[in-house]
Every structure is written in structure tokens, then in C-alpha cells.
Design brief:
Blueprint: E1 11-17, H1 22-35, E2 38-44, E3 61-63, H2 66-77, H3 81-90, H4 94-107, E4 111-115, E5 119-121, H5 126-133, E6 138-142, H6 150-159, E7 174-183, H7 192-202, H8 210-219, H9 244-247, E8 250-252, H10 260-270, H11 274-305
């Protein structure tokens, strides 16, 4: 247990980040500016030692290694470390689930915000800061979320013995787990049999969103009401939605693995060097080409619908 960390720190964050790159650094800077005193519990998938100096500005980071995480889970729940290693290699997002359990059972946190690193804050988010200070769970709706899976529902209700108080979304089709406030006390009743059944449930599932379904529905088992931002500007839209800034205070790059749009946002905010300005120019060019290709595709589809060849124009 990292005994230098106090559960009474006002704001806690957990994350599984691919690497300590420019985007991750910028997100942490924005979160620190909005939340003030906070701690970041991060698992790095690939830590770049060459970029370590940039992250020295974030003393709030508490890095959690795979070995540290696996050792705690193995000893606490009598699970073979080889099983944890094999399962996490096949399903990397399992690490986020194990990290949430670790933060509750080892560090003693009752609440944290879980974040991806493809998040960008268009403007201050005092509503989220207030929810975090009050330890209130929250979930942000999105246009096409996949957060309901029968296998996950059965695990939570049957094996974990919890009741899901799911609130149907009012603005989208579901909830996104990429930036959410988690009531970590929902993991208090996890024992050896519960965790083993969770691993057995997740292992054969093909859906990439099974981790999201797990966190969304576990959060809805909290005895606290889950805030869903029904009447405020918090909503995740497709990554290239042209009115994103008007619709939401927070950008989350969903429905694509191409994160250059987030990089461009951060380059505009924090880019200072010539190299960074050239990088921003390159990304703008790529995004322009993508936009033109999308428009041409729509035009071609329209002509087919009308029964005309595009060449006839």
C-alpha cells in the first residue's frame, strides 16, 4: 500500500494510460488546474523513460505497476499471478477493473474519477469538481454507448449479490465509462469466489465494451444516486461532431482509434515549440483530408440513392 497517499485528499483519479506522452501530460495539467489538490493513480502500459522529465511536474502521480497490482490481487483473493497476467494480456482493460478493486481494498479510497487520456476540457467543469468533492458517483451519457450485457448483469446480480438501479439515459443511448465518478465501496463484498467468477465471466466474452458495461452497472449498484447530467452540457458525441463544443463541456474521442484530434486540441492550448507547431499543421491537414473524403462519400451515396452516377454531374 502506498502509505504516502491519504484517502482524505479532496480528489482522486485512476487511469490506465498507454504511455506518458504529450497528450497524457496535457490532460493531467488541465485536471490539476480544475480540481486543485488531487492524486493520480496510473498504470502505464508502456512507460517512456525519455519523457520522464516532463512528468516530474506532476508530483501527484502515484504509479501502480502491474507487479504491485498483481501481487495484491493474488494474495488477497488467492488467484494465480499467471492467470492475472494471461487474462490481462488477452483483455488489457481488465487492469482498470483490478485497479479499482486495489484502490478500494488496499489504498482505502471510497471514491475516484476514472479517466481515459483522450479527454479534453473545452471549458471549466465546476459541476464535476463539486461531485468529486461530495464523493458523488456520476456517469456521462453518449450517443451510442454499449453498456448492457446479460453476462455482466448476471454476474453483478447473482455472483456479486448487488442490485442494479439502472437509470435509462435521457440524451443518448447509454453511458460511457471513459470519464466517470466511481463509488468504490461497491467492491467491498468482493471475495475470492466473486473475483474468480468475474474473471471466468469476462474471459470468454468477445465484446470490447465488457469493461464499460461492468463499471456502468456496478456504479448503479451504489446506495448513492448516480448523477447523469440530464439537464446540463455533459454529453459524449462522435469524435468529429462539428457542434461538440456547443453540446458538451468535455470532449471524449469516441468511435475511433485515431486520437489526433485530441492531440490537436492540446497542441493549440499548450504547443509552443516549432516542432509542435509543425505537428499541429500536419494534423490539421490530415483532418481536412478526412473531412473531404467523408463529404465525398456522402455525396456518392446520395447519387446512388437518386439512381444517378456521380460522373453524370
Amino acid at each position: 500500500m502506498p502509505d504516502a497517499i491519504s484517502p482524505t485528499t479532496p480528489h482522486h483519479f485512476m487511469a490506465l494510460f498507454q504511455t506518458n506522452d504529450f497528450r497524457s501530460d496535457c490532460l493531467l495539467r488541465d485536471l490539476e488546474a480544475n480540481f486543485g489538490e488531487c492524486r493520480f493513480f496510473i498504470i502505464w502500459d508502456r512507460y517512456d523513460s525519455a519523457a520522464a522529465d516532463r512528468f516530474s511536474r506532476h508530483p501527484q502521480i502515484q504509479a501502480v505497476t502491474r507487479d504491485e497490482l498483481f501481487q495484491f490481487i493474488a494474495e488477497s483473493f488467492q488467484v494465480q499471478r499467471g492467470t492475472l497476467d494471461q487474462d490481462s494480456r488477452a483483455f488489457p482493460l481488465l487492469l482498470r477493473i483490478l485497479l479499482a478493486i486495489y484502490l478500494r481494498r488496499s489504498v482505502g479510497l471510497d471514491y475516484c474519477i476514472m479517466t481515459d487520456n483522450d479527454i479534453f476540457l473545452f471549458e471549466p467543469i465546476p459541476e464535476v469538481v463539486a461531485l468529486s468533492a461530495a464523493r458523488a458517483p456520476f456517469l456521462i451519457q453518449e450517443t451510442g454507448a454499449s453498456d448492457i450485457l446479460p453476462e455482466i448483469h448476471d454476474f453483478i446480480t447473482r455472483d456479486a449479490g448487488r442490485t442494479i438501479h439502472y437509470v435509462p439515459p435521457s440524451k443518448g443511448r447509454g453511458y460511457n465509462a471513459g470519464f466517470c465518478g466511481l463509488d468504490l465501496s461497491v467492491f467491498d463484498n468482493f471475495d475470492r469466489a466473486t473475483l474468480q467468477r468475474l474473471l471466468d465471466t469476462l474471459r470468454p466474452m468477445p465484446q470490447w465494451w465488457r469493461e464499460q458495461a461492468f463499471f456502468v452497472n456496478m456504479n448503479f449498484t451504489s446506495p448513492k444516486a448516480v448523477h447523469t447530467f440530464e439537464h446540463s452540457r455533459y454529453f459524449f458525441l462522435p469524435h468529429d461532431h462539428r457542434a461538440y463544443r456547443r453540446e458538451s463541456k468535455i470532449y471524449h474521442c469516441i468511435f475511433t482509434t485515431d486520437k489526433r484530434r485530441v492531440d490537436l486540441y492540446y497542441l493549440r492550448r499548450y504547443g509552443r515549440s516549432v516542432v509542435q507547431r509543425l505537428w499541429a499543421g500536419h494534423i490539421r491537414g490530415v483532418l481536412l483530408i478526412q473531412w473531404l473524403r467523408k463529404r465525398l462519400h456522402i455525396r456518392t451515396t446520395l447519387y446512388r440513392f437518386l439512381g444517378r452516377s456521380p460522373a453524370a454531374d
